[in-house]
Amino acid sequence: MEPVFFARRAAPLSPALPAAAAPGSIAFDSGHASPAVLPDLTAEAEVALTRCRAEALQYGPRPGLPELRRWIAEFMQQDGASVNSENVLITNGAKHALELVCRALVDEGDSVIVTAPTYFSAIPILRSYGATFVEVEQDRDGMNVDALALLLDRRAREGRPRPKFLYDVPDFHNPTGVTVPLARRASLLALAAQHRIPIVEDSPYRKVRFEGASVPSLASLDDDNVVIHLGTFAKLMAPGLRVGWVAAHPALVARMAQLKTDAGSSPLAQRIVLEFCVNGRLPSHIRDVQRQYRENRDRMVAAMHRVLPELFFDVPSGGYYLWASCPEDVNGDDLAAQARQAGVIVIAGSRFYASADASHPRNRIRLAYSHALPDEIEEGVSRLARAFGTIAPRRHAAVI
Amino acid sequence: MEPVFFARRAAPLSPALPAAAAPGSIAFDSGHASPAVLPDLTAEAEVALTRCRAEALQYGPRPGLPELRRWIAEFMQQDGASVNSENVLITNGAKHALELVCRALVDEGDSVIVTAPTYFSAIPILRSYGATFVEVEQDRDGMNVDALALLLDRRAREGRPRPKFLYDVPDFHNPTGVTVPLARRASLLALAAQHRIPIVEDSPYRKVRFEGASVPSLASLDDDNVVIHLGTFAKLMAPGLRVGWVAAHPALVARMAQLKTDAGSSPLAQRIVLEFCVNGRLPSHIRDVQRQYRENRDRMVAAMHRVLPELFFDVPSGGYYLWASCPEDVNGDDLAAQARQAGVIVIAGSRFYASADASHPRNRIRLAYSHALPDEIEEGVSRLARAFGTIAPRRHAAVI
pTM, whole model, 2 decimals? Predict the structure, then answer.
């Protein structure tokens, strides 16, 4: 019997990520960590599985281990946010956190505000809970708040329901690398408070900063209790741990804990994270992460400038990604397909838009410099240049 | 700002599990493992975090590690089921597997068939996806298939939509301990195939058998591709690993993998499980588990017969639970409340019914013998007897 009973709600999902690439391909598509910065966690695991065995191998409390919730609250306090343990819910990574926000807040047909472009893995999560999208254009300072204000006013005049929340990545945005400046953050928060729309601040890359000073997080600027902050140890320690968190109003935390049907995130993974943190290993590891990804970024930027001057991009001060614009007549989907043939995997910009709106630019691609080894990066960019040459041969020929 | 925007769909959730019990309480409420059978996993973790570090600490493939999917397929083949790797999806435990089934199949207002009583953690999961319940009474052989047949015929005549699936725990049912005999399994499968209703076979306790021969699993009897089988390493190894699986039609597996927004279950936990299994430690560990829980069951049964002869129950041949009937005029909620005062935690039977239907018996309680140490079990039953005495003093006095 074919399973012909799929839910209507989840019907129009995005295709899954590209299948495994051909052997020898260079991966500029992935948010995987650099193999060079995967920490040695054997000592932490040893403690978890011996001294803490009865905790690590049983079901854990649904909201998370109390010590880890407290540690995360203090970590966020040091970053300026007024959060306590009761604001913190441990999750199986930040995507699971977003899913719990959807489970708690989204009914079929509700709308959610996103940037155009936005994080492409957020799109199918939101969609699978029946959300529709209100897209707001992004400029070099992030979501255009003036455009959002007009849009919300118009919706209010038309009597349309208030969007359930606004989703954004204010630090080293995925895919664009944009970090929202302080003034824009203040305007966004004021507008959200005025319209009573929660902001989901997805913040995986905040500490992955290569230069310049941090801008205060939305969570730390939140005087009106509108921010739902998502954090993760995936980029700070390792993705494979699957430990993240959401920091929010205690009523929402309680609700999400109730909806957290996983019988508690793995206490083994939580204990490993906690040991790493309380042993003081996190700060120096974050410095290693910053150093590695700065080197990776520098190698990619230099290579792009050298062999692909037709592509434009802002150099990000942190995060994992370059968001590159091709000449207007070069289609990002075509370039990504050609690049795959040439042995380098990049993601077409079209994948980062929640709607198929014809006004979205078609000439973008996203390159991740996080996963490839520094020496692979130049080769990967050379392959991309070859792929570009097959699509736009004359211009490319002119610059070699 | 209070989060006043909770989704309608998830509104009528069950209360969370009881808060932490008073110190010194004896826990007969929990599906936690016995501390005596939590395995030493330090060697497996060492391998995962050194030789397999690049796998264990990165994002894993969404359907799970290929080697573990293959191992599970073979494990199920040895139990008579015709499954291959492509039928297997790794999840964060069996509850997560049920959640993925809901995400794939359930729209708000869809109905799901459950036994009365049923596994109480399944109720809020199903409900949070907007499912309504069709309850079918259970006898000593499991779900009453004749009653189900009549009910489905009536619904078909009335033109009501087909239930999305049927959920059951055929081996050592939670809470009743019932194992469905072969003939009943065959009738259930035939009826499901006739009405084209998938059966979700939740099977955490199948290997926790103390005596007698196994009955073939629904998955192994499934000639019509109606069974969605849920498995877990929580009861075979340790709950804290959060590794389970669903075995189903490849189209459903692909759909659930797409809806699995956790970026892959933890490859670290999967690798630890896999090392344990391929090193051949599972069979002897399962024997330890069987031995421990048999002892626990025997201690609880003997103590109950000695000090609480007013309560009736069938002695289960496996699993974690006694499902006890009090005299008709003793309310299970009252007894559970009194027991908590007396320092032993049991769960009122009322928690195991999906609806508040007045015809459900009110005089049941569930006792788990899994978690308490053998020496605590007698003391716990004595406390329960004292609590019972405060509710039904004369009868209790008469038997001491």
Answer: 0.94
